[in-house]
Design a protein that fits this description.
By secondary structure, this protein is mainly alpha-helical. It has a single domain, classed as Alpha-lytic protease prodomain-like. The chain is built from 6 helices and no strands.
Length: 215
């Protein structure tokens, strides 16, 4: 037996254990995104911060995506992979469209903020949750990418890409909040919101690209 064939056979025999590890990572993702989304939405509304609110909405969409991937993994374990792929296939397309819609709403909101010259308050809760998200998303993304390669799962790879984008988005919001605290300028939040649109659009495109790759 060739080295490649042996490696494939080993991966096949280890697949149930790898799937359980992936399942555990998704449960961690669901738990964190639930807290991140709730805090982000509350902090964004309370402080009238568009960037933190957008971060919270993005977290909710990622929570839905993680929930679908949980279903996808459990279905593969209990039933058959083809059904799981079809489930993930449709849900990721919906998530991609929702993310692009969020990006469009953020652009409109930021433009209105800049036009009306309305500001916001610094939010300690928003700063804390985004600061914690940066290292956590890095660790989760690395673990997911490793498992995605071992399982040959494009769905898990796309989910890891979402975690990476979430980490960058959190970093941008965190820096924006620090700049807002230091400068006290009314325009910082709107500019930060426009900056994170790039990461939200990247997430949406990644989800839609993953959808087309399966067709």
């Amino acid at each position: 037996m060739s080295r490649k064939a042996k490696a494939k056979a080993k991966t096949s025999s280890d697949r149930p254990a790898l799937l359980r590890r992936a399942l555990a990572l998704e449960w961690i993702t669901v738990a964190w995104m639930s807290a991140e989304g709730a805090i982000g939405l509350w902090a964004g509304v309370t402080a009238r911060s568009l960037s933190v609110l957008a971060f919270g909405v993005d977290s909710v969409i990622e929570l839905i995506s993680a929930g679908v991937l949980l279903w996808r993994l459990m279905v593969e374990i209990k039933r058959r992979e083809s059904f799981a792929e079809a489930t993930e296939h449709a849900a990721r397309r919906i998530a991609g469209v929702l993310l692009l819609a969020v990006a469009a709403a953020v652009v409109v909101g930021a433009a209105w903020r800049l036009w009306s010259r309305t500001g916001q308050s610094f939010t300690l809760a928003g700063f804390a949750v985004t600061a914690l998200a940066v290292p956590l998303m890095y660790v989760l993304a690395r673990a997911k990418l490793s498992l995605a390669d071992a399982l040959g799962s494009r769905a898990l790879h796309a989910d890891a890409a979402e975690s990476i984008a979430c980490g960058y988005l959190a970093f941008a919001v965190c820096i924006g909040l620090l700049a807002q605290l230091a400068l006290g300028a009314w325009w910082v939040d709107a500019v930060t919101a426009l900056a994170i649109v790039y990461f939200i659009v990247q997430e949406g495109r990644e989800a839609l690209a993953d959808e087309h790759d399966h067709e």
